[in-house]
Specification:
There is one protein chain. The chain has about 525 residues and is α/β, with parallel strands linked by helices. Helix content is about 40%, strand content about 15%. The strands form 5 sheets. A 4-stranded parallel beta sheet has the order 4-3-9-10. It has a 4-stranded antiparallel beta sheet with strand order 5-6-7-8, covered by helices on one side. Strands 1-2 form a two-stranded antiparallel sheet. Helix 12 packs antiparallel against helix 13 and helix 12 runs parallel beside helix 14. The chain is globular and about 70 Å long. About 5% of the residues have low confidence. Bound molecules: zinc ion. The site of zinc ion has 3 residues, from loops.
Amino acid sequence: MAWVTGQQLRLYNSLGRRLEDFTPSADVVGLYSCGPTVYSYQHLGNMRPYVFADTLRRALRWKGVPVRAVVNITDVGHAVADSDTGEDKLEVAAAKERRSVEEIAEFYAQDWLAALAALNVQPADVYPRASEYVEQMIAFAVRLEELGYTYQLPTGLYFDTSKSPGYGTLALLDLAGQRETGRVEHVEGRKQASDFALWRAEEPGVRRVMRWNSPWGWGAPGWHLECSVMSMALLGEHFDIHTGGIDHRELHHVNEIAQSEAYLGDGRPWVRYWLHNEFILLDAQKIAKSAGHTLRLADLVEAGYHPMAYRLFLLGGHYRSQLDFTFTAMDAAQATLRRLVSRVAPLRPLPRVETLADARALLGAPAAAAAGVTADAPVTHGAPVDDKAALAYVEAVDAAIANDLATPKLLATLQEALRDPDITAEGLKIVVATADALLGLRLADLDPAEVDQRRPTDDLTPEQVAAIERLIAERTQARKEKNWSRADEIRGELDALGVQVTDTPTGPTWQLR
Ligand SMILES: [Zn+2]
């Protein structure tokens, strides 16, 4: 079995809400991450789960643990408002945009994949699409029906959560004190508010665009079913890690667990580790005003930010902490990235480091020193670098990532090494390559000139310049009148337009971010 070198990797398991040692249960760790519903663009906050899962994947690789990663693409089954009845998100989008559901799904899936690539997220091994697994979903629901876990209503086939003894453990729910959240709509005949649709029957007189025949009539699968079915199909019945946004912890993942453990019926937990990332708080009002849609990565790039600056912004916070997205924070991230890249560029080429064993071997340390187990020695060229300081930084990086993926600490360690007068140039190269194996900021090849791009002001029309200057004059006037709320409001508007105002003794100046 692959083994973990260095500090024991500890991860926060939502199941039990505690830090736990991570131990792989198989030679290849199965990692399933809930993917997007491809009916619209993914906003900035929606990208966090994938950067987080990518960090986890890098951490496992660092520890010498092979991973098989699966991320689903939901192209059918996700009803508007995450409910059990009503229209499918894809069909609503298709009608609105006058395109076919296939075109909608393909367009937004490709846009999302391009954003992942721009963020240097390693591609998953498989991106299964829900629409390709409907037959398996039907078979899964048939099995649940045979086992007595379901009941049928005119609106579809429902999972009876009262039959699931551990229902809601992940969300810390107890079935007796049943929740009635805003997300759960009233369904005629449903026994418990927590019961959910495995199959959504076509409403009388309504013919869905995406429809399949089933033992419960024409219709479409329920939203939760796909993840159980596709993960088991691609990773085996049990696998090690399931990730997703924290919003999934309370409903979607609760239901995935209930139906999967009912289906398997072996008394074992379906998945051993459940990891959830916190939200990004976007200043929605401000952003909606300017762009007319939710802010996404393409908007940041348009405004002159490098995608790696957004990745750096994300890694600057721990995945279990909420992060406030602001342009001020993005400016800081872009400036940090620019400094990092210009500091690192003269050190190139960097050595190839993917694992702790790689880094230790380059520094002449035994590959598996701490764990006392054998690991394949990586092939190195030339004599090892004798640098105790560098080795200490490599171990510090290892300790940071092993501590529930503490990326802020990892970044701080990298910065410290870059300032350290006692480290050798060769040692520093290894430390930078080590940190970037986990951070994925493309420190080995990012062109400093690429990071420096700013949107030139000569792209603006004279009318746009006049409008910006009018706002700035209004703000100056509001400040003169001590109308601070109005001044702040205008600053917010300018901020949303990507205009950065600096107050100087001779009056305000501005530039585009
Ligand atoms: Zn899912």
